[in-house]
# Entry
Amino acid sequence: MPSLPAVFSFRLIVIVFTTLLSLTACTPPRSPDKIVISGPFEPVSYDPASSGYIFSRMQVIETLVDVNDDGTLRPGLATGWQSNDDFSEWTFHLREGVKFHDGSTMNAEVVRKSLAVAFGKPVPFDASLVKDITIPDAHTVVFTLSQHYRPFPSLMSNYTMAILSPASFGKFNRMTALIGTGPYKITDFQPPHNISTIRFDDYWGRPGTIKEVEYITGHRSETRALMVKTGQADIVYNLDPAAVEMLKSDDSVSVFSELIPRTTLIKLNLDDPILADRSVRQALSLALDRTGIASGILRVPGIEANQLFGPGMGVWHMDDLPPPSQSLKQAKALLEQAGWQLANDGVRYRNGKSLEMNMITYANRPELIIIATAIQDQWSQAGVKLNVHMENSSAIPSGHTDGTLQTALMARNFANIPDPLGILLADFTSEQGGEWGPMNWQNPSLFSRIEQIGRETSEASLPAQARDVIRTINDDLPLIPVVYYMQHSAVSDRLQHFSFDPYERSFRIADLQIRSEP
Amino acid sequence: MKRILLNRLLQAILMMWSVGTLTFILVRLLPGDMAYKIAAGRYGDDAVSTAAANAVSAELGLDKPAFQQYLHWLWDLLSLDLGNSLVSGAPIIVELQNQLSFTLVLAGCAIVVAALIAFPLGMFCGVKADSGWDRASLTMSTFVRSQPVFCLGLLLIFLFAMELNWFPVAGYGGAPYAILPVLTLAISLAAVSSRVVRNSTRTAVNSAWFEFSRIKGLSSRRAFVRHALPNILLPALAFMGIQLIGLIEGVIMIESLFAWPGIGHGLSHAVFARDIPMLQGTALVMGFLFVLINALVDVSYYLLDPRQQEVQS
# Structure
C-alpha cells in the first residue's frame, strides 16, 4: 500500500475547513433603524392590480377609504363621502396637503386619472359599475354608478384602487414606477424577492419612527420561522402550526394569532343531481368533524365555522348560533331518506348510481389538501366516496364558469371588499352565483331580499335583515362552512407596538418602534 | 479542438430550436385553460376570476391559432428577442440575467467546494482503500446521499444558523447568505463525487504503471502528482460535469428553502403560471448551458489527456 502524500492529510483538511468556516462566520448585524419583514407573498410587478396587496401592507400605497379592525370604514385619502338617495352617485371629499413620493400633490384630477387606469384592469368587482368619474372641484371626486350600490365606499378600500402619482404611468398607462402616498417609499424592488423602503418624511399623517424597512419573500414557513428565531427577520407572517409550536418556546419571539375575514368553505355545484338535494347537503355538513380539523390539523381549537362570515364581521355574524357538531347518525339518516342506500362496498347507491363526487382544491394554501383528505375520510364514514384533485386556484373560477366543478375546497377571502353586503350583492343575488361563492343555487326570495338591503337607506333595520339572510343561507347550505382562518405571525421582542391588521391591508410599520438596546 | 467547438456550436443551435419548440408544445398539452393559470400567477389566488382570465387572453392574443403564436415566437427568437414575461411583463432577458447570475454563483461555488471536499477525501480513501476511514466515508456518503437535499439544508441551518449563529438562515445580499446553500449543495455533490475519486485513486495507485513509477525511483508524492493525478482527474471531471448540469436543474428545493432568487425558483413558478416565454427562455438557457458544459469538459479532456490530442489530430 503506498503512503499518502502529506498534502492530503486528513487532519489538514479538517483544519482548513474549520478555519474557512470560522473566517466566513458573519451573520449581518442588525441595523438600529431598520427592520426586516418576511412573508410568503411574491410581488411580481409594480402594478397594484397584481401586487398591490403587498405594497399596501408595506404602506407604500393608500386608498381613499381605510378599514378598522371590525370591518367598518374610516377616512383614508378621502376625509368623507356621501351618496345621493338611491346610492347611484357617490361624492368623495379628498384630504388636502397629501404629497406623493415624487413630491407632487394629490388633487381630484390625479385621483380621477389613477382610478380610471385601475378600472381598466381586473378588479375584485364588476368594473362596469362605475359609469363616470367627474371632478366638480380640486378636492372632490364624484362617481356616477350604473346601478344603485350601497357598499360602494368599501370597494374604494381595495388595494387595486390605490391612488398613484401620474408619474407612475408610462406609455399606454403601463406602470414604470410605483409612486404612492404612504408613509414609506420604495428604494429598491427586485421582484418577486425583495422590496426595500425608506420613511417618507412628507407623509400627510403621523410618520413612522423606523427609517428603513425591507421585505424579503420567505417561500417556506419553516424558513420564515427560523429567520425570526435567529434575528434575521423582525416580523414574519403566515406561519404554519408546526412553526408556531416551535416559536412559542422561544423567549425572544412573540407569536400573534388572529382570526381574519377568510373562511374555508366547500363550494357545491347545485346543478349536480346529488347536490341539488338539500338533505344531502345537510348530511355532508353533519358528517364533517370540524373540531378534528381545527384541533388536529390546524391546531387551533375554536375556529370551527358554523356560518359563512366569521366573528369580527359585525352584524353579518350571528353569535348565538349553536357550535357545529358532527353527527354521523343524523347524516346517515338524511342520506337514507334521500334514497341513498348503503351497499356492501361501504358506498351508498341510488337507482344503481353511486354517491361519488369530485373535489378540487389548490396547493398554494398547503393546509387545504390536508383538510380535503380529512373530509374525504369523514364523508366515507357516511358512505360518500370523494375523489380529491389537487389543482391551481384558477380551476375554481374556471370550473364554475364552464360548469364542470362538482365540489371544491377553498379559502374564501372576505377582506377584499370589507363590507359583506358587497360580497352578498355580487355572489348571492342570482342563480349564477359567484366564482368564489355559490353555484347554481336558486333562492329568488333571498336574492330579492339582499337586493332590497342594497337599496335600503336606513341602517337601523340592517341587523335584523342580516340575521335573516345568514339564517337562510345556513338552512339552505349552498356552501358548507368548515373553519375560520387563524393567521399566525411572529415578532421579535426587539420591536414594540406590534398589532395585526385582520383585513391584512397594512403591516402597520408606522406604528412600530425599535426598543432601545439595554 | 476547433472541430470540437464547431460541433458543439451546431448542437447548440439545433438544441435552441428543439427545446423551444418542445416547450411550446408541452405547455399547450398541459391540462387547464392557460389564460386562467396566467391570471392566477399575475393577480394571486384571491383575485383570479373569469374576467381576469378573459382580460389576459385578450391582452396576450391567446385566442390566436397556435401555429401563429409559434411562428411569432420563432421570428422573435431569430431576432434574438425572448419576449416579455406573461406574469410580470418584464423582458425575459432581464429576468434570466438576474436569476441565472444567482444560480450560477450558487452552482459554481457549490461545485468548487464539492471538489475541495471530494478530491482530498476521495484520494485519501482511495489510497487507504478498505480501511476504517474508507468504510466510514462510504457510510457517511450513503447517509448524506440518501437524505433529500432539503433535509441536509435544514440540518445545516439548525447547526450553523441557529446553534452557532454564524450565517443567516435565508435570503441574499452578500457572501454570508450564500454559504449555507452552497455548503448544502456541495456536501450533497461531494457525497457521490468523493466515491468516484476514491475508485479512480484506488485503481491508479494499484496499477502496474504506478508501481513501475515507484520502482524507477520516484518519490510517492512525485509519482502521485505526475502519474496518478491525471488518471484520477479524467473520470472525476466527466462526472462533475454531469453533476453540474444536474445541479443547475435541481436547485429548486435549495433556492426555495434558502429564499435564493435563482432560476430554479423562477422555472417552477413559470410552470405553475404557464408563463411560456419565461419557460422557453429558461429552457433555452439551460439547454445552452448543457452544451457549454459538455464543450468545456471536452476541451479540458483534450488538454489533460494526450491520447485525445492524438485522436483529434
Q: What stands out?
A: The first strand of chain A starts at residue 34 and ends at 39. Chain A touches chain B through 65 residues (CB under 8 Å).
